[in-house]
Design goal:
It is a single chain. The chain is an alpha+beta fold and 100 residues long. It has five helices and three strands; from the N terminus they run H-H-E-H-H-H-E-E. 20% of the residues are buried. Helix 2 crosses helix 3 (28-38), helix 3 packs across helix 4 and helix 4 (40-49) crosses helix 5 (56-69). It is globular and about 40 Å long. The chain has helices at 5-10, 13-19, 28-38, 40-49, 56-69; strands at residues 26-27, 75-84, 90-98. The termini are far apart. It has one domain (5-98). It has a three-stranded antiparallel beta sheet with strand order 1-3-2. Helix content is 48%, strand content 21%.
């Protein structure tokens, strides 16, 4: 594989940010939900890449958010808030605003 699964997902960030609401901020869980829905195969590849580690979902989601934070061309990190993860557990996540 010439690119790892996380890099392949990051290539889709521009597309996903465009799908996020323009009139309100969104958090990392919102972003990951749309990203994983639109690019299920790549998301599964990323999870599989971490399948030998503890908490592969957490690791992949953290990596996605860290990469998103570097994309200042797409989003601005506004604050952090508590949000339900895919397992229904509260966790602290970043809140983003689209760059105009």
């Amino acid at each position: 594989m010439s690119k790892d699964a996380l890099e392949k997902l990051e290539d889709k960030y521009d597309q996903i940010v465009k799908l996020m609401p323009a009139d309100k901020d969104f958090d990392s869980h919102d972003f990951i939900l749309v990203l994983s829905q639109k690019h299920q195969r790549l998301y599964i590849e990323a999870l599989y890449a971490f399948s030998d580690k503890n908490r592969p979902f957490h690791r992949v989601h953290m990596a996605i958010a860290k990469r998103l934070k570097k994309r200042v061309d797409l989003v601005t990190h506004i604050k952090d808030r508590r949000s339900n993860n895919i397992f229904g557990q509260k966790s602290l996540v970043a809140v983003w605003r689209k760059v105009k």
